[in-house]
Amino acid sequence: MTAVIEAEDLCKSFGEVDALDGLSFTVDGGQVFGLLGPNGAGKTTTVRILSTLDKPDAGFGRIAGFDVVDKPHQARASAGLAGQSTTLDLKLKGRENLKLFAWLYGVPRQAAAERSEELIDRFDMGHYIDRPVETYSGGEQRRLDLAVSIVAEPPAVFLDEPTSGLDPASRLTVWREIEHLAAAGTAVLLTTQNMDEADRLANEIMVIDRGRQVGRGSPRQLKDALKRDALVVTFSNSGDRADASALLDGHVVSAVGDDSLHVRTERRLDSFDALAVLAASGIEVSDFDVHKPTLDDAYLALTGHVAPDEGAP
Ligand SMILES: Nc1ncnc2c1ncn2[C@@H]1O[C@H](COP(=O)(O)OP(=O)(O)O)[C@@H](O)[C@H]1O
Ligand SMILES: [Mg+2]
């Protein structure tokens, strides 16, 4: 079986910035591929190239076997896109947008009407679907955006940070829909900065930073690769942090907030040793937390960035 989404050595520069520096991956039908990375990592650029909105400088993209540069119309028709910026017509009502996009994708009228009703029901959009889109809340618009992207039941779907800024209930609706899409055989490319989301939904995750792959595997494999406990220490006096950092040299992963350090522990320096070292030099610890590695820790170790808080810009 050939993959539905194929990216091979994609490269793209904007002036001096190498937005993509040789990314390769494939996504089969029924799989959710998670593209994870901090702001500016190249997630949206990848999605834009694969959905024919932008051209690669080098490398190939194929959707359902259609090259995104040589066969852009066929490639575009094979993929739904719910992006960071909406493709909806804001002056039209939600229902009219569904109809318009079904028509653009060549869905026969009767099938389009049935499919629209099904999506309105499934996404719980009945109470707002007959208002102009410009009156929608962020969450309402995102749900419609997602519905529109799949109205023609394309074999591939690109979801570019589909839940960023959503309230928990809307996020859950989107998560269920992504599960539903994969179960129905769709190849899903999901970009996200949300570790819980990738952990829950993705079969395979590629972590990228500055346009390059820095880690790859199943959520389980990425977590297992750490094989260490994560220790977060908070100091009574934030001024002690620099001294503590020097004492634990080589084990500090990053600063957290104003007064905490994230420390990587292993056999040579377990969490209690680390705390003992601090206590022996008179540094007062107000709180600490030891936990098994999460996908957050894996992300941090791979990119050197803390995953942003939900809702942060
Ligand atoms: N049209 C553009 N012109 C100039 N630079 C761009 C453009 N689009 C993206 N970039 C740059 O390319 C890099 C990757 O951006 P992007 O793919 O949007 O990252 P992400 O979606 O992971 O946050 C960033 O450094 C960004 O500033
Ligand atoms: Mg982006």
Q: Output mean pLDDT.
A: 89
Assign the CATH architecture of the largest domain: 3-Layer(aba) Sandwich
Tell me the fraction of residues in β-strands, as a range.
Answer: 25-35%
Span between N and C termini?
40 Å
Sequence of strands across the biggest β-sheet: 6-7-8-3-9-10
Q: Label the overall shape.
A: elongated
- How would you name the oligomeric state of the polypeptide chains in this document? single chain
Contiguous low-pLDDT stretches (5 residues minimum) are: none
Number of helices: 11
Q: Give the C-level CATH assignment of the largest domain.
A: Alpha Beta
Q: By helix and strand content, what is the structural category?
A: alpha/beta
- Number of DSSP-assigned strands: 14
> Residue share in helices?
25-40%
Supply the CATH superfamily name of the largest domain. Answer: P-loop containing nucleotide triphosphate hydrolases
Any idea how many domains?
2
- Look up the CATH topology of the largest domain: Rossmann fold
The hetero molecules present are: adenosine-5'-diphosphate, magnesium ion
Summarize, please.
The protein has helices at residues 43-50, 72-77, 94-104, 109-122, 138-149, 168-183, 195-201, 219-224, 241-247, 271-280, 295-303; strands at residues 5-14, 17-27, 32-36, 58-63, 66-67, 79-82, 156-160, 187-192, 204-209, 212-217, 229-235, 252-256, 260-265, 285-291.
